Amino acid sequence: MTKRVYVLAILVCISVLSFAVTKAEADALYEKEQYAEAAQSYESILKTSGVAAEVYYNLGNCYYKQDEIPLAVLNYERAILLDPGDADIRANLALARGKTIDKVVPPSEMFFVTWWRGLTNSMSIDAWAILGVTAFVLLLLGVLVYMFVSQLILRKIGVYGAMVMLVIVLIANMAALSQYADRTHRDTAIILAPSVTVKSSPSDTSTDLFLIHEGSKVKILDQSMKDWMEVKFEEGKVGWIHVNAAEVI
To answer: How far apart are CA 53 and CA 86, in angstroms?
Structure first.
Protein backbone atom coordinates (compact mmCIF):
# COMPACT_ATOMS: atom_id res chain seq x y z
CA MET A 1 0.00 0.00 0.00
CA THR A 2 2.82 2.38 0.90
CA LYS A 3 4.52 1.82 -2.44
CA ARG A 4 1.29 2.60 -4.26
CA VAL A 5 0.97 5.86 -2.36
CA TYR A 6 4.53 6.85 -3.30
CA VAL A 7 3.92 5.98 -6.95
CA LEU A 8 0.69 7.99 -6.96
CA ALA A 9 2.46 10.98 -5.39
CA ILE A 10 5.21 10.84 -8.01
CA LEU A 11 2.66 10.66 -10.83
CA VAL A 12 0.80 13.66 -9.40
CA CYS A 13 4.05 15.66 -9.19
CA ILE A 14 4.95 14.77 -12.76
CA SER A 15 1.47 15.79 -13.90
CA VAL A 16 1.71 19.15 -12.12
CA LEU A 17 5.17 19.86 -13.53
CA SER A 18 4.05 18.98 -17.05
CA PHE A 19 1.33 21.64 -16.89
CA ALA A 20 3.50 24.25 -15.17
CA VAL A 21 3.95 27.41 -17.18
CA THR A 22 7.52 28.54 -17.78
CA LYS A 23 8.58 32.17 -17.86
CA ALA A 24 9.77 31.75 -21.43
CA GLU A 25 6.25 30.70 -22.46
CA ALA A 26 4.72 33.65 -20.62
CA ASP A 27 7.25 36.01 -22.25
CA ALA A 28 6.36 34.60 -25.66
CA LEU A 29 2.69 35.38 -25.06
CA TYR A 30 3.62 38.92 -24.05
CA GLU A 31 5.71 39.39 -27.21
CA LYS A 32 2.71 38.26 -29.26
CA GLU A 33 0.68 40.99 -27.47
CA GLN A 34 -1.58 38.37 -25.89
CA TYR A 35 -1.52 40.33 -22.65
CA ALA A 36 -4.46 38.66 -20.88
CA GLU A 37 -3.04 35.18 -21.49
CA ALA A 38 0.45 36.34 -20.49
CA ALA A 39 -0.93 37.83 -17.26
CA GLN A 40 -2.56 34.52 -16.38
CA SER A 41 0.71 32.73 -17.06
CA TYR A 42 2.73 35.11 -14.86
CA GLU A 43 0.14 34.72 -12.09
CA SER A 44 0.54 30.95 -12.37
CA ILE A 45 4.32 31.24 -12.16
CA LEU A 46 4.06 33.32 -8.97
CA LYS A 47 1.81 30.69 -7.39
CA THR A 48 3.89 27.66 -8.38
CA SER A 49 7.47 28.95 -8.42
CA GLY A 50 7.41 31.69 -5.79
CA VAL A 51 7.74 35.45 -6.03
CA ALA A 52 10.28 37.21 -8.23
CA ALA A 53 10.74 40.88 -9.04
CA GLU A 54 11.03 40.24 -12.77
CA VAL A 55 7.78 38.27 -12.88
CA TYR A 56 5.89 40.95 -10.93
CA TYR A 57 7.36 43.56 -13.29
CA ASN A 58 6.22 41.67 -16.38
CA LEU A 59 2.81 41.09 -14.83
CA GLY A 60 2.52 44.81 -14.16
CA ASN A 61 3.39 45.47 -17.81
CA CYS A 62 0.61 43.10 -18.91
CA TYR A 63 -1.96 44.93 -16.82
CA TYR A 64 -0.65 48.31 -17.97
CA LYS A 65 -1.06 47.25 -21.61
CA GLN A 66 -4.66 46.26 -20.83
CA ASP A 67 -5.24 49.63 -19.14
CA GLU A 68 -5.85 47.93 -15.80
CA ILE A 69 -3.91 50.60 -13.98
CA PRO A 70 -4.63 49.62 -10.33
CA LEU A 71 -3.35 46.08 -10.91
CA ALA A 72 -0.35 47.46 -12.79
CA VAL A 73 0.49 49.74 -9.85
CA LEU A 74 0.03 46.86 -7.38
CA ASN A 75 2.44 44.57 -9.20
CA TYR A 76 5.04 47.27 -9.85
CA GLU A 77 4.98 48.03 -6.12
CA ARG A 78 5.46 44.34 -5.33
CA ALA A 79 8.37 44.22 -7.77
CA ILE A 80 10.00 47.21 -6.10
CA LEU A 81 9.77 45.51 -2.71
CA LEU A 82 11.97 42.72 -4.10
CA ASP A 83 14.29 44.90 -6.20
CA PRO A 84 14.08 48.54 -5.08
CA GLY A 85 17.12 49.57 -7.08
CA ASP A 86 15.65 48.66 -10.49
CA ALA A 87 15.23 51.87 -12.50
CA ASP A 88 12.91 50.29 -15.08
CA ILE A 89 10.42 49.20 -12.42
CA ARG A 90 10.38 52.67 -10.87
CA ALA A 91 9.97 54.33 -14.27
CA ASN A 92 6.99 52.14 -15.19
CA LEU A 93 5.44 52.64 -11.76
CA ALA A 94 5.69 56.40 -12.28
CA LEU A 95 3.97 56.03 -15.67
CA ALA A 96 1.17 53.93 -14.17
CA ARG A 97 0.64 56.27 -11.24
CA GLY A 98 0.50 59.14 -13.69
CA LYS A 99 -2.67 57.58 -15.09
CA THR A 100 -4.46 57.39 -11.75
CA ILE A 101 -7.20 59.90 -10.94
CA ASP A 102 -5.89 61.14 -7.60
CA LYS A 103 -2.69 63.15 -7.96
CA VAL A 104 -1.15 63.07 -4.50
CA VAL A 105 1.66 65.27 -3.24
CA PRO A 106 3.24 63.50 -0.24
CA PRO A 107 4.07 65.70 2.77
CA SER A 108 7.62 66.97 3.02
CA GLU A 109 10.08 65.05 5.18
CA MET A 110 13.49 65.68 6.67
CA PHE A 111 16.42 65.58 4.27
CA PHE A 112 18.12 62.78 6.17
CA VAL A 113 15.03 60.54 5.91
CA THR A 114 14.84 61.07 2.14
CA TRP A 115 18.58 60.47 1.78
CA TRP A 116 18.50 57.27 3.83
CA ARG A 117 15.50 55.89 1.93
CA GLY A 118 17.23 56.61 -1.37
CA LEU A 119 20.43 54.92 -0.17
CA THR A 120 18.56 51.89 1.20
CA ASN A 121 16.60 51.43 -2.02
CA SER A 122 19.61 51.86 -4.29
CA MET A 123 20.32 48.11 -4.16
CA SER A 124 18.45 44.89 -3.47
CA ILE A 125 18.65 43.09 -0.13
CA ASP A 126 20.90 40.44 -1.71
CA ALA A 127 23.28 43.08 -3.03
CA TRP A 128 23.47 44.72 0.42
CA ALA A 129 24.17 41.32 1.97
CA ILE A 130 27.01 40.63 -0.48
CA LEU A 131 28.47 44.09 0.14
CA GLY A 132 28.24 43.57 3.90
CA VAL A 133 30.01 40.20 3.81
CA THR A 134 32.73 41.53 1.47
CA ALA A 135 33.32 44.57 3.67
CA PHE A 136 33.50 42.35 6.77
CA VAL A 137 36.17 40.16 5.16
CA LEU A 138 38.18 43.26 4.22
CA LEU A 139 37.72 44.56 7.76
CA LEU A 140 39.27 41.40 9.16
CA LEU A 141 42.09 41.65 6.63
CA GLY A 142 42.78 45.23 7.72
CA VAL A 143 42.91 44.16 11.37
CA LEU A 144 45.32 41.34 10.52
CA VAL A 145 47.57 43.73 8.60
CA TYR A 146 47.60 46.13 11.57
CA MET A 147 48.41 43.34 14.04
CA PHE A 148 51.03 41.35 12.15
CA VAL A 149 52.72 43.70 9.67
CA SER A 150 55.65 45.72 10.98
CA GLN A 151 55.79 48.50 8.35
CA LEU A 152 54.15 51.66 9.69
CA ILE A 153 52.53 52.75 6.40
CA LEU A 154 50.90 49.33 5.92
CA ARG A 155 49.68 49.33 9.52
CA LYS A 156 48.05 52.73 8.97
CA ILE A 157 46.42 51.51 5.77
CA GLY A 158 45.18 48.45 7.66
CA VAL A 159 43.64 50.34 10.58
CA TYR A 160 42.06 53.13 8.52
CA GLY A 161 40.83 50.63 5.95
CA ALA A 162 39.29 48.54 8.72
CA MET A 163 37.49 51.61 10.08
CA VAL A 164 36.03 52.39 6.64
CA MET A 165 34.96 48.77 6.18
CA LEU A 166 33.30 48.82 9.61
CA VAL A 167 31.16 51.77 8.53
CA ILE A 168 30.23 49.98 5.29
CA VAL A 169 29.33 46.81 7.22
CA LEU A 170 27.03 48.78 9.53
CA ILE A 171 25.33 50.62 6.65
CA ALA A 172 24.90 47.42 4.61
CA ASN A 173 23.35 45.56 7.54
CA MET A 174 21.02 48.43 8.43
CA ALA A 175 19.89 48.77 4.79
CA ALA A 176 19.34 45.01 4.44
CA LEU A 177 17.37 44.88 7.69
CA SER A 178 15.26 47.85 6.57
CA GLN A 179 14.37 46.13 3.30
CA TYR A 180 13.69 42.86 5.11
CA ALA A 181 11.28 44.66 7.44
CA ASP A 182 9.48 46.17 4.44
CA ARG A 183 9.12 42.72 2.85
CA THR A 184 7.88 40.92 5.94
CA HIS A 185 5.76 43.64 7.52
CA ARG A 186 3.37 44.44 4.68
CA ASP A 187 1.52 47.52 5.88
CA THR A 188 0.73 49.23 2.57
CA ALA A 189 -2.00 48.54 0.03
CA ILE A 190 -3.34 49.70 -3.31
CA ILE A 191 -6.96 50.74 -3.82
CA LEU A 192 -8.49 48.42 -6.44
CA ALA A 193 -12.13 49.51 -6.29
CA PRO A 194 -13.03 52.21 -8.87
CA SER A 195 -13.89 54.63 -6.06
CA VAL A 196 -14.06 54.36 -2.29
CA THR A 197 -15.83 56.59 0.21
CA VAL A 198 -13.55 56.91 3.23
CA LYS A 199 -15.44 56.82 6.53
CA SER A 200 -14.76 58.44 9.89
CA SER A 201 -15.28 55.10 11.71
CA PRO A 202 -15.72 51.42 10.73
CA SER A 203 -19.39 51.66 9.88
CA ASP A 204 -21.41 52.31 6.72
CA THR A 205 -23.52 54.82 8.65
CA SER A 206 -20.55 56.87 9.83
CA THR A 207 -19.60 60.23 8.36
CA ASP A 208 -18.23 60.37 4.83
CA LEU A 209 -14.82 62.03 4.90
CA PHE A 210 -13.67 62.07 1.29
CA LEU A 211 -13.56 60.02 -1.91
CA ILE A 212 -10.52 58.08 -3.10
CA HIS A 213 -10.04 56.35 -6.44
CA GLU A 214 -8.36 53.22 -7.79
CA GLY A 215 -4.60 53.07 -7.90
CA SER A 216 -4.04 55.14 -4.76
CA LYS A 217 -1.54 53.86 -2.20
CA VAL A 218 -2.41 53.70 1.50
CA LYS A 219 -0.65 52.76 4.72
CA ILE A 220 -2.58 50.32 6.90
CA LEU A 221 -2.91 51.54 10.49
CA ASP A 222 -5.47 49.13 11.98
CA GLN A 223 -6.67 45.72 10.76
CA SER A 224 -8.35 44.58 13.95
CA MET A 225 -11.86 44.90 12.49
CA LYS A 226 -13.22 42.03 10.39
CA ASP A 227 -14.56 44.01 7.41
CA TRP A 228 -12.81 47.34 7.85
CA MET A 229 -9.32 48.73 8.07
CA GLU A 230 -8.03 52.12 9.08
CA VAL A 231 -5.66 53.59 6.54
CA LYS A 232 -3.51 56.66 6.06
CA PHE A 233 -3.20 58.18 2.61
CA GLU A 234 0.02 59.58 1.21
CA GLU A 235 -1.02 63.18 1.75
CA GLY A 236 -1.67 62.45 5.44
CA LYS A 237 -5.45 61.94 5.57
CA VAL A 238 -6.76 59.11 7.77
CA GLY A 239 -10.00 57.14 7.58
CA TRP A 240 -11.69 53.74 7.36
CA ILE A 241 -12.37 51.68 4.24
CA HIS A 242 -13.75 48.21 3.51
CA VAL A 243 -11.00 45.59 3.43
CA ASN A 244 -12.13 44.34 0.00
CA ALA A 245 -11.56 47.79 -1.52
CA ALA A 246 -7.78 47.39 -1.45
CA GLU A 247 -5.11 44.69 -1.73
CA VAL A 248 -1.99 44.52 0.38
CA ILE A 249 1.25 45.06 -1.51
So the answer is: 9
